[in-house]
Amino acid sequence: MNRWHALLPNWAIFTVLTLIVVLNLISSYFQFYSISNAITLALIPVLLTSYFYKLKFMETVFFAIFMLYFCGIAFNLFPDFSLSEKLSESSFLGAYALMIFIMLGRLKHVKFEGVVTWYLVVVAIINTYLMYAMFANVKDYFNDSVVMTLAVSKGIMLLIMAFLAFAIYLSKETSQAIIFLTVVCCFAFADVLDFTTTMYVQFWVFEGFQKVLQGLGLFLLCIYTYNHQEYTKGVLTNDRTESIRKSKQLTA
Prior knowledge:
Layout: H1 10-29, H2 33-54, H3 60-76, H4 84-107, H5 114-138, H6 145-171, H7 175-199, H8 204-251
Helix pairs in contact: 1-2, 1-8, 2-3, 2-8, 3-4, 4-6, 5-6, 6-7, 7-8
């Protein structure tokens, strides 16, 4: 995994991760929920600024994911606004749908063996049942059918994301596959903790780690995007060099 930290030097990575953990846990302990949301919200511009300082281009799908996630967090800052929860859930849903779109493009290169295929099928069935049981127990707590539909849809998106990311990881254990699987796990567990604290019990440790996982997922997603763009840039440069070399040979 010699490429995973190419975006920032080690001291900057350590500083960012320490601030994400410490500030979110402190704000959750003292119940400064607006501050914890603002920390995660401010993290996205900081990460994008660092990214564009080193690379001037980002594929539209990755930029859209960051913007949708930014909107999802931003709408949570205004709980008194009647549409804030719906708009927030819709934004997160759109971001997860785009992440699935990215993984579908990687899936065409995936090859499975018989045992791996059956293992993935069993895992998918178990996770589907657990998600169904969870929503079946709390469906009466939803006062708005639209919010319930968005929450269920987001759960399905997370399930598909986890399945695809795990499948890609089992097929090729590259650093990028590991990073993306970690990103998906961070977002999935963050949403599970958010669901738990909303529907069952409010505990500052759960709330703090939910924000920590959310911030860590965004941080790793930015690293994944940077590595992907660097790789794409390198491939295009090599192709262009090869094309120029061949054209010179033809005209010589």
